[in-house]
Amino acid sequence: MQIEPEISFHRCEPSDAVKDAIGRHIDNLERIYGRMTTCRVRIDQLNQNAAGTMPPVVRIEISLPGRKDIVVAHGTGHLQRKFQSPDVHNAVNEAFRIAEQRLAQVKDIVTDHQQVRTHEAAHEFRGQIAEMHPDEDHGFVMTAEGGLLYFHRNSLLTGEFDALRRGDGVTYVAGEGDTGPTASKVRVLERA
User: Fold this and answer.
1) Domains of the chain with bracketed CATH
2) What is d(CA 33, CA 31) in angstroms, rounded to the nearest whole number?
3) Is the Cβ–Cβ distance between 177 and 189 less than 8 Å?
4) What angle do CA 45, 4, 103 make, to 5 degrees?
5) What does the pLDDT look like over 71-104, one tens digit per residue?
6) Distances (CA, A) of 69 to 7, 106, 154
7) Quick check: 12 and 44 in contact, CB under 8 A?
């Protein structure tokens, strides 16, 4: 974690046991996703009844690079429905349980996105422009094996379609179209 975690208590007494439990939960979060920027935990005793049985609200904010913060906060009603007589430990455990689930979801999304990008890059081939038909919005890429793959103007990711010339180097992802093999995600290589 780049910035030390912040733990604060509002309208309730700080407790070393609670701080230790929060520290262990933060360690678990780091094991789930080691790229967290920081984690802020606020324990706030918003309300109290005559019997002193209202649990505090635990708010967790997890900052991640390049993503929205994960914020977990639930009212005391949630805890009272889930636990017979909730206390600060129940509130902390429940908030971190939810935070761990959300962080795991973010990790899955990031991991899946990286795998898709790696998978696509692994199936990217080099070729060169063989034919251009700008008036018909398409052209053909010659593969390293000498085959021709159709590509549409909209398949071009980098470069200008109208500026493409025979022999220009490109990378592409091979695919199947309605009429046969095609090149998609075509990127123009810089000329030497």
Assistant:
1) 6-120 (3.30.160.100), 124-188 (2.40.50.140)
2) 6
3) no
4) 75
5) 999 777 777 777 777 889 999 999 999 999 999 9
6) 17, 11, 35
7) yes
Q: What is the CA radius of gyration of the chain?
A: 28
**0.85 exceeded by the pTM?**
no
pLDDT of residue 101: 94
Q: What is the pLDDT of residues 123-165, one digit of tens each?
A: 789 999 999 999 999 999 999 888 899 999 999 988 899 999 9
- Report how far residue 67's alpha carbon sits from residue 52's, in angstroms, rounded to the nearest whole number: 39
Contact between 99 and 29 (Cβ < 8 Å): yes
Instruction: Provide, rounded to the nearest whole percent, the portion of the chain with pLDDT above 70.
Output: 90
Q: Give the tokens for residue 141.
A: 């890429």
